[in-house]
């Protein structure tokens, strides 16, 4: 399914593309300013967890932005996409007004375009490799906004196309976990003709897209449409099933599953192991976000409780920290604050998320690190003792290392503290499968680019391999694993040589 | 969706439910638990498994009415479906033939204790079980426990059944009478704390099974964290059983009240 260079070049020479190329001069394309994503007003959107911040482009805005794209001979943007979307082809379809066709181009290689259009860090992927950035030092074509536009247009039109499927080969494969990596894998495998079953431990399909990313960034309804597309393509989904506990991998083999893809994610939240951290009112971002996003605890009629506080402190500087602190604001916090040990420059969160958080009145206390929690007589947190930090030499991550400043300690009032300092791989699968090579961090060891583990029929990808990354990198792993598992299974069971 | 095939009220607040769950019935071991959810707005709630019938494909759960979610579950009738049921979760009890085992269950803690008592008996141990509750009505599963124990001692706070007194009084008598090689305690946190203090005095290895607050039950949320031997552990994936002499019970009891106010609000709202 990978698109060869030649294929890309031939596509570009199609009549309609050539016509568009001629229609507008490059000089005129370059004079168009990059589109601004329309946003809900900050004072309105903080009233509800379910008001989407980015509202999406109108058809006119999208077509105008698509016109900026130069339809380069050598589209470097595609090299920046972990799932190799044919970017110029979908954008040029938008330019000519064929939005459904644009959506179908997205679906050739991506199982979740409406999701990616919302949560991918395009600024460090496709858009960073855009001609405008690389050659003109100007803002990139808004590839992410356009992707979202095409996917949303198709969904709202009700004319959702199902990608072409190969003839069924009857080979059963099992997918463990139903997050972005697994969904991407399942989409590719079902297209190749496999009989795909996805096993999910929770009661909802979607993994981190459901329990982690809040509705103001990614509505659950959008995720559900993408899942339903996979269902229509023939993917089976089984909820409330924990592989390794409900049934073992060996049980599934006996039931006829020939190969497995482990996309069980980075389930285990990290804590800092500082005094007082197990006081009430201190919780992981996983717990906080799961209660709200998956269990709907922000709504009155949900049976699941959630802690609301006047002063909420969120520890960390990643996207999950931003999601948590912005959720706190929407749950009624008067003061919602990020405490992060490095400076804003080193924050792993997307610039857009930090920007939106600031618009919403989130306070930032950078170069600050918690060292102790102080609880009241009932065991509920009331204050965080923090220490000021300064930046030293770069560490292994390439970012400048934070160094504590002795004697700089002070306290911050907080009745709820959310710890968002990262996650570790979920141990359930590594612990339950004999013969699986696991690193000392608990991640599954795979042959790079093949995603094959020490057990030949077990492939793995996403956070269970990476230890904590992005939706799109996890999806890229799913695609790679599918391509390689296809080769493995066809050689083994169908005695077919597959073109690499 | 899992169908309820049998229901019995043990007391006003304690209900036994037998529910179809063939895969869990087959896979479950003593010490495992499940997570259930009732209704589309329902909360995920951990519950211990009191027994299973592999042939019928059912498991037995014992539920005490505490808050909105447990009340909703207890209100379901035979033929109704539990919206979501997942498991078995947690590490199973490590059962060996060690000699004489003292099993102590308080209140609905007797439910998860039953499969463990059965396991110890099957492994060839002499099993002495102490059942404790506030009063006679709250003593559950007595017959089943008797079937699998060499000796059963019943203690009630008010003396309405068995002997009057605390679980620890009965335990100490037995400990002074004969050699006990291992002890397990399951019940209210305060009971387990005092059981642990007692067996520590006599240096008897003791396990306690914890009923922490959980959301997913698979290691994801960390709501169930507990300090064991100075280190933070997750009850769902590291437990639910831990060395009772190393558990910080005071912290554990405090953490059980972590959502007290919010839970009461939900209950008041529900009962309106």
Task: Write up this protein.
The complex is a heterodimer of chains A (500) and B (272). Chain A is α/β, with parallel strands linked by helices and 500 residues long. Helix content of chain A is 36%, strand content 15%. Chain A has 20 helices and 16 strands. Chain A has helices spanning 5-12, 15-23, 26-31, 42-45, 59-68, 87-95, 99-109, 113-119, 131-134, 143-157, 180-191, 208-211, 220-232, 249-254, 285-294, 319-330, 351-359, 428-432, 463-466, 471-493; strands at residues 172-176, 195-199, 236-238, 257-262, 268-269, 282-284, 311-315, 335-339, 363-365, 368-375, 381-394, 400-404, 410-413, 416-419, 423-424, 458-460. Chain A is globular and about 70 Å long. Chain B is α/β, with parallel strands linked by helices. Chain B has two domains: 3-89, Elongation Factor Tu (Ef-tu), domain 3, CATH 2.40.30; 100-257, Nucleotide-binding domain of ferredoxin-NADP reductase (FNR) module (Rossmann fold). Chain B contains nine helices and 16 strands. Chain B has helices spanning 22-27, 68-75, 110-122, 142-147, 167-177, 189-201, 235-238, 249-256, 260-271; strands spanning 2-9, 14-20, 33-37, 45-53, 58-64, 81-82, 84-89, 100-106, 126-133, 151-156, 163-164, 182-186, 206-209, 225-228, 231-234, 241-243. In chain B, α4 links the parallel β9 (126-133) and β10. Chain B is globular and about 55 Å long. The mean pLDDT of chain B is 95. Classes of the chains: A alpha/beta (500), B alpha/beta (272). At the A-B interface, β5 and α15 of A face α1, α2, β7, β14 and α8 of B.
């Amino acid at each position: 399914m990978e698109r060869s260079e030649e294929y890309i070049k031939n596509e570009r020479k199609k009549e309609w593309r050539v016509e568009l190329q001629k229609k507008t001069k490059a000089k005129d394309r370059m004079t168009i300013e990059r589109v601004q994503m329309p946003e809900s007003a900050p004072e309105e959107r903080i009233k509800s967890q379910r008001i989407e911040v980015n509202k999406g482009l109108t058809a006119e805005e999208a077509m105008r932005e698509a016109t900026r794209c130069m339809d380069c001979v050598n589209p470097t943007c595609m090299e920046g996409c972990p799932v190799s979307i044919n970017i110029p082809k979908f954008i040029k379809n938008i330019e000519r007004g064929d939005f459904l066709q644009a959506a179908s181009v997205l679906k050739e290689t991506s199982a979740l375009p409406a999701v990616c259009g919302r949560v991918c860090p395009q600024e460090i992927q496709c858009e960073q490799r855009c001609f405008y950035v690389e050659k003109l030092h100007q803002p990139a074509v808004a590839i992410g906004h356009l992707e979202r536009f095409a996917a949303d247009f198709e969904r709202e039109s009700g004319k959702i196309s199902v990608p072409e499927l190969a003839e069924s080969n009857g080979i059963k494969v099992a997918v463990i976990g139903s997050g972005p990596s697994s969904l991407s894998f399942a989409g590719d495998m079902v297209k190749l003709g496999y009989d795909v079953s996805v096993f999910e431990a929770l009661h909802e399909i979607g993994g981190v897209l459901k329990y982690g990313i809040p509705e103001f960034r990614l509505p659950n309804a959008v995720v559900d449409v993408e899942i339903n597309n996979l269902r229509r393509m023939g993917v089976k989904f089984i909820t409330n099933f924990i592989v390794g506990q409900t049934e073992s991998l060996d049980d599934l083999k006996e039931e006829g599953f020939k190969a497995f893809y482990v996309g069980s994610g980075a389930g285990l939240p990290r804590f800092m192991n500082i005094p007082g951290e197990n006081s009430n009112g201190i919780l992981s971002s996983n717990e906080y976000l799961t209660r709200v996003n998956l269990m709907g605890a922000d709504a009155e009629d949900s049976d699941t409780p959630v802690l609301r506080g006047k002063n909420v402190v969120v520890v960390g500087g990643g996207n999950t920290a931003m999601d948590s602190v912005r959720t706190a604001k929407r749950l009624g916090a008067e003061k919602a604050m990020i405490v992060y040990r490095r400076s804003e420059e080193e924050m792993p969160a997307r610039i857009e998320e930090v920007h939106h958080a600031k618009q919403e009145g989130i306070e930032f206390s950078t170069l600050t690190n918690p060292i102790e929690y102080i609880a009241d007589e009932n065991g509920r947190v009331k204050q965080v003792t923090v220490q000021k930090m300064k930046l030293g030499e770069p560490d292994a991550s390439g970012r400048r290392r934070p160094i504590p400043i002795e004697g700089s300690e002070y306290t911050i009032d907080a009745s709820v503290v959310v710890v968002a300092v990262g996650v570790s791989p979920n141990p359930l699968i590594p612990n339950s499968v004999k013969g699986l090579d696991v690193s000392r961090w608990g991640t599954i060891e795979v042959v790079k680019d093949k995603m094959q583990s020490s057990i030949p029929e077990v492939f793995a990808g996403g956070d269970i391999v990476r230890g904590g990354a992005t939706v799109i990198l996890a999806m890229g792993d799913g695609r790679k694993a599918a391509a390689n598992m296809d080769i493995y299974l066809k050689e083994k069971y169908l005695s077919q040589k597959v073109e690499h | 969706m899992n169908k309820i095939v049998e229901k019995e009220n043990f007391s006003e607040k304690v209900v036994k439910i037998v529910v179809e769950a063939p895969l869990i019935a087959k896979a479950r071991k003593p010490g495992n638990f499940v997570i259930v959810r009732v209704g589309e707005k329902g909360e995920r709630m951990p519950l211990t498994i009191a027994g299973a019938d592999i042939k019928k494909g059912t498991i037995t759960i014992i539920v005490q009415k505490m808050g909105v979610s447990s009340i909703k579950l207890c209100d379901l009738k035979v033929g109704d479906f539990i919206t979501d049921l997942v498991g078995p979760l947690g590490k199973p009890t490590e059962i060996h033939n060690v000699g004489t085992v003292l099993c102590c269950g308080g209140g609905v803690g007797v439910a998860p204790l039953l499969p463990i008592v059965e396991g110890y008996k099957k492994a060839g141990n002499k099993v002495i079980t102490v059942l404790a509750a506030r009063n006679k009505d709250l003593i559950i599963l007595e017959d089943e426990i008797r079937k699998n124990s060499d000796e059963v001692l019943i203690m009630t706070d008010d003396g309405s059944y068995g002997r009057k007194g605390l679980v620890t009084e009965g335990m100490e008598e037995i400990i002074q009478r004969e050699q006990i090689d291992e002890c397990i305690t399951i019940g209210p946190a305060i009971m387990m704390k005092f059981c642990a203090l007692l067996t520590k005095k006599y240096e008897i290895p003791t396990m306690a099974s914890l009923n922490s607050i959980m959301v997913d039950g698979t290691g994801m949320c960390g709501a169930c964290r507990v300090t064991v031997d100075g280190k933070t552990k997750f009850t769902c994936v590291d437990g639910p059983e831990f060395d009772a002499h190393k558990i910080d019970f005071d912290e554990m009891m405090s953490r059980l009240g972590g959502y007290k106010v919010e839970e009461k609000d939900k209950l008041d709202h529900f009962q309106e």
